[in-house]
Amino acid sequence: MPKLSFPIGPQHPALKEPENLRFTVDGELVVDADIRIGYVHRSIERSCSERNYVQDLYLCERVCGICSNAHTLAYSMAIEKLADVEVPERAQYIRMMMHEFERIHSHMLWLGVAAHEIGFETLFMYAWRDREIIQDILEMVSGNRGHYAMTTLGGVRYDITDEMAGKIREGLATLRQRAEHYADIATTEATFLKRTVGVGVVSGDRCQQLGACGPVVRASGKDYDVRAYFPYLKYDNVEWEVRTSELCDVLGRTIVRVQEVIDACDISIQCLDLMPEGGEIQAKFPRKVPEGEVTSRVEAQRGELIYYVRSDGSDVPERVKIRTPTLANLPASIEMVIGGQIADIPIAFASIDPCFSCTDRMVVLDDISTGDRRTMSWAELVKLGKRK
Amino acid sequence: MTASELVEQIQSEYEGELTEAEARSDVDAWVGVPPADVQQMARYIMETWAPVHLSTISGVDNGREIEVLYHFATEGVSLNLRAAVPKGDDRIDTITPIVPAAILYEREIMDMFGVEIVGHPDPRRLILPEDWPEGDYPLRRDDVLEEEEGEEDNA
C-alpha cells in the first residue's frame, strides 16, 4: 500500500490548541510523524526584558493557564536568588501547598482528558467532578480558580487561616480517597487497560537521551524529579517519594500521575502540620536587583520547568529565558506515535499532557496581502483591537 | 557531589581551554569554553557524569556576542556551560549527535538569534513562520521593535 502523508492542524476540530502535526501512514500504521509549533507564540521572553521585575511576575503567570503557579514560583525563586532575599518559613510552606494543589488539579484534569481521548466518558465526568474539590480549595485560598497570583517576590500574598486549614484537610481527605479509587480503576478496568497497555511506548533510556522530564520520564523507570534532584522550598522536610513505573506506556503515565495526586494530598497535609504559627508571609523586596545570572528549576506538574534570568543591576531584567516541560517532552512524544495505530495517536499525544500555549510564547502579526509588514506599532494594535 | 567538586574535576581532567570555571553555590557550576570546543566539552560531560539531563539551551545577546548557554543537570549539580559566539561569525557546532535532547533547543537558538548551528541534522524553523524574512532574529538586540507611534490610550 502506498504511504500517505496528512497534516492535522494548526486549525482542527479535534485540537484544543493550535499546532501542526504531520503524519505519514502505511494503512493504519503510523510510520513517521513531525510537529510544527509557534502558532501561539506571544513574545513573553522579549516582553519580560521590557518590563520591571514585578510586572514580569504577572506576565510569567500568564505563560500557562494550568501551571501558572509553577511559573511564578520558578520566576520568584530566580529573582530572590539574585536579590539574596530569604523567604519567610510560613510563606515557603504556603508556596509548597499551592504547588501541590496545582499538581492535583492538573493531574485530575489530565485524567479526565485522557479518559475522554479513549472514549471513557464516565471516568472523564467523575474525574472532573472530583477536581472541583481542589478548585474550591484554590478559590478559597487565593480567590481564583486559575491564575491564583499567590506567589509574589519575597513570599505569598495571602495567608492560610485556621478555618481554611480545616476545610483543606476535609477536602483533601475526600480527594485522596477518590484518587485511590482511580488508581484502582486504572489498573483493573478492562476497557481502560485495552486502550493504554503497550500504547505510546518509549524506553527509559531513550526518554533520558531525548531530555524528557516529568511523569513521562518517571513512567519509563527513571527518577528525574527536580523536587528530589534540586530540593527547593521545604521538600527536604516532608516525607514523600519519587513515583516511577517501569511500564513505559500510557498506563504507566496514568499510574504515576494518579499516585502523585495521592502524594500531593499527603505533602499538603504535612505542610499544614509543619507550618510555623503566625509570622510574616512576605519579605521586603528591593525594586532593583543586583547584577548577576541564575537558573531556577521547579517540578511543575508536566515536568521540569527552568528559568534563566540575567540582571544588569536595574529594575528591568536583561534576559528571561523560559523552557516549559512540553518542549522537552515533544521529541519523546514523536517517538511514542511512530509505530502505533492511527487510532492511538490522540491518547499517545495526550499522555505527555502537552500544552502548546506554554511552549510558544510569541505572536507574529503578518499582513498576508502585502507580505512586507512584520511588526505593528502599539497605536496600530489599538486600532486593530477597536476595529469592529 | 557538590558544584565545587565538579568544577575541580573539570579543571584537572578536561584537556582543553576553559574561559571560566566557577562554583557559585553548592549546586551551581558555571563553565565556559571557546565556541570551537563545544562538542569536545559536551562529549566530556556526557561521558563523565552519565546520565546527564540537558534542561535547555539559552541564548543571550550581550551586544558584542551571542552567548549560548547549555544548562545540564546531574544529581545535585546544575552545570551551566557557556560558549560566546562573536557577532559577525555566528557559528557554533551542533551537539545534537552527542546530546539528542538538544535538537529542538538548537533550532530555537537558530530561529531566535540567527546563530548557525553547524551540522544540525534538522535545521528547519521551529517557531518562526515560513514567511518570516531571512536574516531577522527576534531576540537579537540589533533587531529593535518598532518605536511606539504616538500615545493612544487602549481603553
Folded structure, characterized:
The complex is a heterodimer of chains A (388) and B (155). By secondary structure, chain A is an alpha+beta fold. Helix content of chain A is 48%, strand content 13%. Chain A has a single domain (44-324), classed as Cytochrome-c3 Hydrogenase, chain B (Orthogonal Bundle), CATH 1.10.645. In chain A, helix 6 runs antiparallel to helix 11. By secondary structure, chain B is of the alpha/beta class. Chain B has a domain at 3-89: Beta Polymerase, domain 2 (2-Layer Sandwich), CATH 3.30.460.80. Chain B is built from 3 helices and 7 strands, in the order H-E-E-H-E-E-E-E-H-E. In chain B, the strands form 2 sheets. A 5-stranded mixed sheet of chain B has the order 1-2-5-4-3. A two-stranded parallel ribbon of chain B has the order 6-7. Chain B is globular. At the A-B interface, strand 6, strand 7, strand 8, helix 12 and helix 15 of A face strand 3, strand 4 and helix 3 of B.
Give the gist of this structure.
The complex is a heterodimer of chains A (388) and B (155). With 388 residues, chain A is of the alpha+beta class.
Give a quick set of tags describing it.
heterodimer; A: 388 residues; alpha+beta; Cytochrome-c3 Hydrogenase, chain B; three-stranded antiparallel sheet; 8 strands; B: 155 residues; Beta Polymerase, domain 2; five-stranded mixed sheet; two-stranded parallel sheet; 7 strands; 22% helix; 28% strand; globular
